[in-house]
Design goal:
Length: 968
């Protein structure tokens, strides 16, 4: 008799099987025909314990596994992240001894070991974890967010995570008490999402060994509490008060920056829906257990809230609950004259209340506008007084509106709650503005001290730091309240503008906070600091931003600005004794036989350029510096637009943002001869007066005239220029260097956070252009550039890219400063990209273009040099555009990748802007075959179900497109 062989069951060992996640994971594995052995302090629930595919073990994991146990295919090891990896915070990683035996199972190849730990919000921990060699060589590690969902354990103070604690309070009490002012970071992870992700990553091959498992991007506990409050009202018919425990938090948790698209799986349950499911489950439990008096443990917890001492919290922020009104009894004998008098009195009170509410709202709006205007004009006292008055007016209006709209809350609960959130947001925004004004006032005084070399007073950076941090937190909270209100149906053009203004306040507060915290390192308190400033002329574009025509030095001593100087670059280039071979293109087109500092920015990577620039400066002057700052004429132009016209008395001229390029070229080039000081003199005078006006704006904000720049406008200008690559930075100081690297202001190529060769969780595509004007002219002023990029996904989800660049030279003749555009073009693509079609076509006039006539076509692919560079492929060729002509350049190439539709169905394009370029039009077209469709682009689901998408924008900054696709 033949017996059919029984299929092999996957043997699994799970630790901590009494925990919520382990129980659900155990049930999932059993349903997948796995044989599960569990270890825990307490037995799991009866359904699991009684299943014939589950065995509860009583063993000591610190000892070798007993011989009678089967050889486990998979071991799930649950650990506490801080206990297991806490030493990573001090850069000394160590896995606990108790887990050594299980870890050895993986390293010996006996079992697949999976470590599951909670997420620590410390960013240093996560960075060290990713870089530690011991961890890299260890088993798969899952860092799991705040797990919640139906069947989760309830407790007044959960030891598991903050989200469970908030949900437990909502279910068992009529209040939620938040610690740390609600600023703790929460990483929601719904139970079904977590189970799905664990199964996917465990049973699918992957080269990664560290995974983050969450359901949505991190949020503060205050934001989560607002969502819980809203869902509880709708699901449990329950009103929850919010309170804050203990003194104000002195430290703001920033938390790990996590993008859903980087997870490697697509979560299905957002917090609002997850809470509904959870609350529905426990509500049904209460109903069921109330019917059975013998099993009312859970019901007692939910039906009879735990009474907390009033001393356990301090209500130092307003409650977000609509107040309950006392019940009114209409007495039947109230009629006739007495009834009419009573009704009239009620109507009078109501009218007065409505009038006072309207007045409070009007005063609140008026005062906040006055505060903003006073802040920008530098009148800090007035700004602070108006902001405080606005906060008081909005709070008063908020209290009255809650009272007046209470009856309507039964009919339109979401609308009423949304309206209340808008008012609370306005009051919070006014408080944020008050803190921001306080910080600005102290910082303005600090600038006075720093820029006054002879002043002995020391700067106070602690006070503005605290104030800006608080302003950022409150503005973020206010913006979140508006977002919740909009989700509740209070949405209009005004609410959108309000949210945008709050986001702007939050961002400028954060930037100011960061600036203050780095000021001490920047000015070198107690020592000397010297920074080399490079002025790049982007009307003569070079890969690093523009031809280097001038340089300057900014010097600090003992925390005070000692001096600023500007010089012509030729004054030190003439001192170079060493002969350095230049790039062949400079020799071929310009006849340059030796390389100097002025031509040293030959790559699109500012990190590399800065190192080369420092090396040249050291060779030419025998001096070193503490950092390099590169800026171009567009940055100077933007500053002039804020500062206003500059009068140069020595030249009897007024320099504006409109005539800067023209007057600069005239004074630096016309009549210039070797040894001439005219360029140095002009730019030194311009720089000195410009800096004096900037410093005056920083030191004396209250003396600014109408229309002149405030320091806020200057900070915003600098921030915009950093993102647009008109201003770039590198520093030696570790704190400054780390901050600049985190912000990406050192602009490496490609960016640090985007490796085009890493397709582990998505299919990555990359595009960057690098141009060098080798025509010895300033023709970039007259040049228009348009970039069209088309990506076509083939039948096998393979990638074919088509790049078309259209140059139009609006020069009317070959006369300097205009003329032909002699461009050495480099195109950076993903690794191993292969060019299979190339074309250049020239239209010599607009008439020819209108007639569709072309001349000067070139399709010789041999004209393109193809070479690898790190994680990139580089296409290089010359593109020449005569005056009054348009040149089209087209590259068509294959990228040896395809979209992994089953494992990682995401395409991610990163387009990196060249330093020194402007707002070039950019059109991106994405084509899919008939069996694949778009699910979302950058999280926007309005593109869903489309197969051909075209997005038109510009390259003012870098652009990213994260496109999630799926089979039909």
């Amino acid at each position: 008799m033949n017996e059919t062989a029984q299929p092999h069951k996957t043997q699994v060992l799970i630790t901590d099987t009494d925990s919520y996640l382990a129980c659900e994971l155990t049930a999932s594995l059993i349903s997948q025909n796995c044989s599960v052995f569990g270890v825990g302090k307490n037995p799991p629930p009866a359904p699991i314990l009684q299943d014939h595919d589950f065995t509860l073990l009583d063993i000591n994991l610190a000892q070798p596994l007993p011989a009678y146990l089967p050889q486990f295919d998979i071991i799930f090891l649950f650990v506490n992240a801080k206990a297991a990896f806490g030493d990573l915070l001090s850069h000394t990683p160590n896995l606990t001894t108790a887990n050594t035996n299980i870890i050895s199972q993986a390293r010996q190849g006996k079992s697949q070991v999976v470590i599951l730990a909670d997420i620590l919000t410390d960013t240093t921990f996560f960075e060290n974890l990713q870089n530690d060699e011991n961890i890299k060589n260890s088993p798969k590690l899952f860092l799991i967010g705040d797990i919640y969902g139906p069947k989760m354990p309830l407790s007044q103070k959960s030891s598991q995570n903050e989200l469970v604690n908030l949900i437990s309070q909502a279910l068992t009490q009529d209040k939620i008490i938040l610690e740390k002012e609600g600023l703790s970071m929460i990483y929601p992870a719904y139970i079904s999402d977590a189970i799905f992700a664990i199964n996917k990553f465990v049973f699918s091959p992957s080269s990664k060994n560290i995974y983050l498992i969450i359901s949505e991007e991190p949020k503060t506990s205050l934001t989560a509490a607002y969502t819980i409050q809203n869902v509880a009202r709708l699901t449990l018919n329950k009103e929850l008060n919010l309170y804050f425990s203990g003194p104000p938090s002195q430290v703001s948790e920033t938390g790990l920056v996590v993008r859903i698209t980087d997870l490697g799986f697509t979560p299905k349950v957002e917090l609002e829906n997850g809470l509904k499911n959870t609350f529905d489950y426990f509500r049904q439990q209460v109903k069921s257990e109330n019917k059975n008096p013998t099993t009312r443990q859970t019901a007692d917890k939910i039906s009879f809230p735990i009474q907390l001492s009033q001393a356990a919290y301090t209500g130092h922020l307003p409650k977000t609950l609509i107040p309950r009104l006392p019940s009114l009894k209409l007495l039947p004998h109230l009629h006739g004259r007495r009834f009419k008098k009573g009704l009239a009195l009620i109507l009078i009170v109501l009218i007065l209340t409505l009038g006072k509410t309207a007045l409070d709202l009007y005063l609140g709006v008026a005062n906040i506008k006055s505060a903003q205007k006073a802040l920008y004009s530098g009148d800090f006292k007035k700004a602070k007084d108006k902001a405080k008055s606005a906060s008081a007016s909005f709070n008063a209006a908020s209290n009255k509106v809650r009272l007046l709209t209470y009856p309507a809350s039964f009919v339109f609960p979401k609308k009423v709650q949304g309206a209340n959130f808008i008012l609370e947001s306005a009051a919070t925004a006014a408080s944020a503005l008050t803190y921001f004004v306080d910080g600005s006032q102290v910082l303005a005084h600090d600038f006075q001290i720093i820029t006054s070399y002879d002043q002995k007073e020391s700067v106070d950076l602690d006070v503005p730091s605290v104030n800006f941090r608080k302003a950022n937190e409150l503005a973020s909270q206010a913006a979140e309240l508006v977002r919740i209100a909009r989700r509740n149906g209070i949405s209009s053009g005004q609410t959108v503008k309000f949210e945008e203004s709050l986001t702007k306040l939050s961002n400028i507060s954060l930037s100011s906070f960061e600036l203050v915290n780095l000021t001490g390192d920047l000015i070198g308190a107690g020592g000397k600091k010297t920074y080399l400033v490079i002025l790049q002329n982007n009307t003569e574009l070079r890969p690093g931003g523009g031809f280097i025509g001038n340089f300057g030095l900014v010097q600090f001593e003992d925390g005070k600005l000692k001096g600023i100087s500007v010089e012509d670059i030729y004054t030190i280039d003439g001192q170079l004794k060493e002969k350095i071979t230049p790039p062949s293109q400079l020799t071929e087109k310009l006849g340059i036989t030796s390389l100097y500092l002025r031509d040293s920015n030959w790559t699109g990577d500012f990190n590399l350029n800065a190192a080369t620039i420092r090396d040249f400066y050291r060779k030419e002057t025998s001096q070193d510096v503490d950092g390099v700052i590169a800026l171009d004429l567009t940055f100077v132009q933007n500053l002039l637009a804020q500062i206003g016209p500059i009068k140069l008395a020595d030249y009897n001229e007024e320099i504006t943002s409109q005539n800067l390029f023209e007057r600069g070229e005239t004074h630096s080039e016309v009549g210039f001869f070797p040894g001439s000081s005219q360029k140095r003199d002009f730019f030194s005078t311009l720089t000195r007066i410009l800096l004096n006006q900037i410093l005056d704006s920083l030191k004396n904000p209250s003396k600014q005239e109408n229309g002149k720049a405030s320091w806020l406008a200057l900070v915003e200008t600098a921030k915009d220029s950093l993102s647009q690559k008109h201003l770039m930075l590198t520093f030696d100081n570790p704190n400054l260097a780390a901050f600049v690297k985190t912000k990406g202001w050192d602009h490496p190529l490609p960016p640090v956070n985007f490796n085009p060769a890493d397709d582990s969780v998505e299919t990555r595509d990359f595009l960057a252009l690098s141009e060098a004007n080798l025509g010895a002219n300033k023709v970039n002023r007259f040049l228009n550039r348009k970039i069209d990029y088309e990506m076509t996904i083939g039948r096998d989800a393979d990638l074919v890219g088509k790049l078309k660049i259209t140059y139009t030279n609006n020069s009317q003749a070959n006369t300097w400063p205009a003329g032909p555009y002699v461009n050495f073009l480099r195109v950076y693509l993903p690794p191993a990209a292969s060019l299979f079609e190339y074309k250049q076509s020239l239209r010599s006039s607009q008439q020819d273009a209108d007639a569709g006539l072309k001349n000067g076509d070139n399709t010789d692919i041999a004209k393109v040099d193809i070479s690898p560079q790190g994680s990139l492929t580089v296409l290089a060729t010359y593109v020449e555009v005569p005056p009054k002509s348009t040149r089209e350049v087209v590259f068509t190439y294959r990228i040896p990748k395809n979209i992994q539709l089953e494992k990682a169905p995401t395409y991610h394009l990163y387009v990196q802007k060249q330093p020194g370029t402007g707002e070039d039009p950019f059109k991106f077209t994405f084509n899919l075959p008939t069996y694949i469709e778009v699910k979302s682009i950058n999280g926007d689901k309005s593109y869903q179900d489309k197969q051909n998408v075209t997005i038109e924008t510009d390259l003012l900054t870098d652009r990213e497109y994260i496109i999630e696709v799926a089979k039909k």
